[in-house]
């Protein structure tokens, strides 16, 4: 990372965010200017980033990239490639300090804060976060900003996941506007059903024993993200390695 080396960095004059490449800084500036240069040739919807346009185009084509091992599908080939690390065990992202490896880049970025001790504090309530992006999302609570807008009804949301959940309402509507009974996703092993496909996927780990969420400090694994979050508090409070009893 250019922050820790002699590499040249490019800094945003508006928010002081630093980038290794000038081209990345140029794309980042669209966030401040509101410019959306990438336009869908089908519906004319515009996007700040090219990769968002590419992902959007799959809505029109219906193209999906399917994992040959678990049949999970993705709209982007790059997302499928990252997903495959779960099956292969590959961890291509290496910490320069302790040589610990990670399957996902964002996990490496989070891990690096263990070495630096850097946190980002909210100027309103003093709550601190290990990632600046999490602090930025947190600030919406204080500002009331809702940047994620539904393309169908223009309803706005603070969090992207809330928008995605909301979009299911439109998917279930008939042309007359009447909403169907909620779709249920059923586990083929125990017949337990869920309103969201994601919840079924998490539940299925009970049968497979999969624990994809791993503690960066002690390598303890968890089925659910929230269980890992609760566990990490042990390290924050004690600042020591924990052992499973």
Element layout with pairings:
Layout: E1 10-11, E2 18-19, H1 22-33, E3 38-39, E4 46-47, H2 50-61, E5 65-66, E6 73-74, H3 77-88, E7 93-94, E8 101-102, H4 105-116, E9 120-121, E10 128-129, H5 132-143, E11 148-149, E12 156-157, H6 160-171, E13 185-186, E14 193-194, H7 197-208, E15 213-214, E16 221-222, H8 225-238
Antiparallel strand pairs: 1-2, 3-4, 5-6, 7-8, 9-10, 11-12, 13-14, 15-16
Family: Belongs to the krueppel C2H2-type zinc-finger protein family.
Protein name: Zinc finger protein 271
GO molecular function: DNA-binding transcription factor activity, RNA polymerase II-specific; sequence-specific double-stranded DNA binding; zinc ion binding
Report on this structure:
The structure is a single chain. Helix content is 40%, strand content 13%. With 245 residues, it is of the alpha+beta class. Among the domains are: 48 residues, Classic Zinc Finger (Double Stranded RNA Binding Domain, 2-Layer Sandwich); 54 residues, Double Stranded RNA Binding Domain, CATH 3.30.160.
Quick overview of this protein structure:
With 245 residues, this protein is an alpha+beta fold.
Contiguous uncertain segments of 5+ residues: 174-182, 240-245
Structural class: alpha+beta
The end-to-end distance, rounded to whole angstroms, is 38 Å
Approximate strand percentage: 5-15%
Q: Under the CATH scheme, which architecture of the domain at 184-237 would be assigned?
A: 2-Layer Sandwich
Q: What fold name stands as the CATH topology of the domain at 184-237?
A: Double Stranded RNA Binding Domain
- Number of extended strands: 16
> How are helices and strands ordered from N to C?
EEHEEHEEHEEHEEHEEHEEHEEH
How many DSSP helices? 8
CATH superfamily of the domain at 184-237: Classic Zinc Finger
User: How is the biggest beta sheet arranged?
Assistant: 2 strands, antiparallel
Helix coverage percent? 40-55%
* Rounded average pLDDT: 77
Protein name: Zinc finger protein 271
Domain C2H2-type: 10-37, 38-65, 65-92, 93-120, 120-147, 148-175, 185-212, 213-240
Pfam family, one: zf-C2H2_6
Keywords: DNA-binding, Metal-binding, Nucleus, Repeat, Transcription, Transcription regulation, Zinc, Zinc-finger
